[in-house]
Amino acid sequence: MNLDTLITNYGGLIKTTKSTKKPTLTLEEILRDGIKTQRETELNTPKSWFKEGLVTPKVVVYPIFKNEDDSSMGLSMSENEYEGFLNGLEQSLNDGCPKLTEKLDGIREIHKKVVEKRNETKKKNKEEEERKKKELENV
Q1: Which of 64, 74, 126, 131 has its Cβ near the most Cβ atoms within 10 Å?
Q2: How far apart are CA 120 and CA 1, in angstroms?
Q3: pLDDT per position as a tens digit, 73-107
């Protein structure tokens, strides 16, 4: 028996995975969570912002500080200074520091472009999938 016939005989495929959408967080909330995570993360590990005396703070994958050529920038500090840096960054976030807000607005724009490009790709892929499906139906 062919697979399509088998599936049809049993009423077709249905979705069996239930997914719940997480609430969308703002970049400020994501940064706040990131700071909390950094406090719990061992230094000099892949998930740590602190690596060998250099700190590159990020919001998800986007570095907060970037050079004109889009390369990441960070700060040099000792392990003993790191907690103070995290406290200062959190305080700047809580105070609505204009410079930090400006950096987050830049990240927001970059992220918006990435999401738009991803959605365009998804749309093109879906259209291509539908086109192929119609071609198969016409064969």
Answers
A1: 64
A2: 39
A3: 999 999 999 999 999 999 999 999 999 999 999 99
